[in-house]
Design a protein that fits this description.
The structure is a single chain. With 328 residues, the protein is mainly beta. It has a domain of 228 residues. The protein is 8% helix and 49% strand. Strands 1-2-3-4-5-6-7-8-10-11-12-13-14-15 form a 14-stranded antiparallel beta barrel. Strand 12 and strand 13 form a beta hairpin. The termini are far apart.
Length: 328
Amino acid sequence: MISVKSKIRLAAALSFVLLLTCGKIYAAFLVESFGSRAAGKAGAVIATIDDASAAGWNPAGLANIKEPSALFEYYSPFSGLPGVSLDYMLASLVYPYPEIGHFGISYSVFRGDGIYCEHALSLSAARELNDWIPDFGKVRVAAGVNLKYLYHGYDWEPMDSGDPILNDPITKKDGAGAFTADLGFIVEPVEQLPLGLSFRNIIPADIGLKEKDSVPFSASLGAGYRIYDAGYFKSITPELSFIYRDQVWGDPSDKIKLSAGVEAWLKHPSIGIRTGLSSDEVAFGASYGMKAMENISMQLDYAAVLPFTPLSDHWGHHRVSLSANFFR
């Protein structure tokens, strides 16, 4: 007979999966939102992303980063729900090499109350292609790629060693990992009008413990417009984006996410405000930038994300990230 402790632990692990899906069923690595700044636009950043979280959205966005940059983010999904403890952390570093390209490394971890975890390590590279392919003329073209290792695991301890559930093949493994890759492009056919295209998980990544369980391929398309020197604002950047996730389950509508967002930066001081709306959530955000040292600037980003879920006690996510730019 399975012990009560084991039943509770297994039920908790299953509840994390159900909680994350909120009626929609996905494989692991459901968390596909990187950086508080992008979260404040509901993910409408495929064409305009320009901070150290770019690898998570469109690796070609690394080519928009002009100085060495670092970013750290933490948030607790579904905060406010009694008895639920979920944590997500992201650390990312981008270093542009003149005439060579832009390179980055990022690491993210998602934890569920010590029972479940997801780890993602990504190595990234991006470059503008105009000087390589002069035929592009005035059309700005950038391309980027991520090489990723994804791992998810379960902690079956402390279970009673005599529990029959431990004889099940699924509990014989603590976790599974696989390599995959992303590919992205940004094309600016007209000045201030970038178009973004990103393909994620283009190499099948089977992370099943017992049966095949591949992280789904996804494709993203975005169109933005950069408005400069608009009254009190240094810049205003609206964007529309479309994300398709090719999982083999769920309704067709579950595979599609549409997002619209806008970000605006004041001329003085360095304050940014943003908002976004998607088929899954509504979001708001703000940023404050300051000069920490002569050659270092810091930026604090905040986002409040309110998902459209049936969880009456859930008031959304509060996300905070801190970034730094190092001027050479």
